[in-house]
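Thread: methionine sulfoxide complex, take 2
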Amino acid sequence: MRADYSALAQTIGALTEGETDHVSLMATVVCELHHSDDRFDWTGFYRVTEPGMLKIGPYQGGHGCLKIPFSRGVCGAAARTEQAQLVMDVNAFEGHIACASSTQSEIVLPVTDQSGALLGVLDIDSDLPAAFTQEDVDHLQKILHQVFAGDGCINKP
Ligand code: SME
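Output below.
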């Protein structure tokens, strides 16, 4: 099963309409994403809780590490650079943090609010090698923007 991003955008838009609490939004997005695609073995948010530090947010899958400094791991790289990280082989990524030894590839996207401030990152890990493509990055980024930057377009065709 592969994510139907258009259907996901509609469902997530309907579920989160009018909600502004970030944790509630993150929990809903994670739940919808995690069950939509067989490649998604761990799906979760890390939140910026103090300068230079990420802490675990809502997630689905096995337990994730609680804290990740911006200087470490794929999540840290996404937070530091505010650029999506598409990692085909986690073993080849210097500084990768292995919360689960089964993880082979991952995608991490920055999450920003309406003002452009960094709220955290969305991390999706797969037990399959090279599971993700730029297409996943583009679709996921659009959903994140619509939910957290609140441009309100998610429910509009
Ligand atoms: N893989 C991430 C760490 C988080 S977990 O895998 C849940 C990283 O290197 O940033």
